[in-house]
Write a structure and sequence with these properties.
This protein is mainly α and 99 residues long. It contains six helices and no strands. Helices cover 74% and strands 0% of the residues.
């Protein structure tokens, strides 16, 4: 892959990532436990991956800064506004994956 194609590919990937973040910010009814149970990742995972990617490039981004980016607001505010208590079924499914 030449440098122009590599740059374009990275720009496309960045656009896709931004679209995913925006989508998750707009789909507040989708709980993190649902994402974990269905896809084995959640908004917090994306935040951790963001911190890791920044660190690998010599940039310090705190976990809280990354979560603010992913959630579109401070995590505590998102939890207060949108997070629901996990149901027994959600917790059972989540915990069964760990075994």
């Amino acid at each position: 892959m030449n440098d122009n194609n590599k740059k374009l590919t990275m720009e496309i990937q960045a656009d896709v990532f931004q679209a995913l973040i925006k989508h998750l910010q707009n789909k507040t009814e989708v709980q993190n436990i649902d994402l974990m149970n269905l896809a084995d990742f959640c908004r917090n995972c994306l935040s951790k991956w963001y911190v890791t990617a920044a660190k690998e490039r010599g940039m310090e981004v705190s976990y809280e800064e990354a979560r603010d980016f992913v959630y579109g607001m401070p995590y505590s505010q998102w939890k207060e506004k949108y997070q629901k208590e996990a149901t027994k079924e959600q917790l059972e499914k989540f915990n069964s994956r760990k075994k």
